[in-house]
Amino acid sequence: MFVALSVVGLAVIFHKPLLQMLGSTAMDGQGISISLDSNQPVEVSVKHNPMRCRSSEPVTVLGSTPLRKVSGAHLQDTLVLENKQLGIYREIEVPFGEPNEHKTLPPVEFKSGTVRLALKPKNILGIEIYRDGQTLGTYQPGLSLELVEGKHHLVLQGTALLEPVPVDVEVKGRDITNMPVDLTPYLRNARQ
Fold first, then answer.
1. Which of 53, 114, 135, 140 could form a disulfide with 48 if both were Cys (CB 3.0 to 4.6 A apart)?
2. Where are the alpha helices (DSSP H) in the chain?
3. What predicted TM-score, i.e. pTM, was given to this entire model?
4. Domain residue limits, the chain
């Protein structure tokens, strides 16, 4: 009885390390080198798989594209491609392979699309459009914003508004997205 309770007690105390050990394979934590090109400059980092990689750091920065035989990634990690100025963020899973293998990944293309905001009321003036703190332009009817495909969190600001107005838009490459935005609830004059 004492032995059985001791085994159960040890299993409770050490269940996480035991599960990690039982779930791991010889491929876990095996380093590889990466080569990668993209049509837009992006910073490439690696999010390490905490269950598989056993890296001491959760993220490792590899550098900017183009990458040529850069080490620091492991099998089953995730590559993060990011360019905050262009609003680019994409994750790519590191493909399966052999330990110490060199992986040349297919080139990554970031296509552009167009966003046209249609603000209501139509006569509103002086509204600035921001993304991540940088100005994309001042609104005027028919204004087209060329953005890289993906999700973008825009913010509209202006003296006519009580507060900044967030606008989330999904941009599709080589497509036009018309985005109506009703600013009436945010107008200074509307609440007086």
1. 53
2. 2-13, 15-23
3. 0.74
4. 27-104, 112-191
Q: Token pair for residue 123?
A: 């006569």
- The residue behind tokens 């620091």 is 72
| Residues β-bridged to residue 146 | 114
CATH of region 112-191, choose from 1.10.645.10, 2.60.40.10, 3.40.50.300, 2.60.40.2070: 2.60.40.2070
User: Measured at the alpha carbon of residue 93, what is the angle toward residues 81 and 49, in degrees to the nearest 5?
Assistant: 100
Q: Running along the chain, 192 residues long, what does each successive block of 10 average in pLDDT?
A: 59 54 49 95 92 73 96 91 94 86 94 96 94 94 93 96 96 94 89 49
The residue type of 35 is: S
Residue at token pair 């036009």: 176
Among residues 100, 6, 83, the alpha carbon closest in space to that of 38 is found at: 83
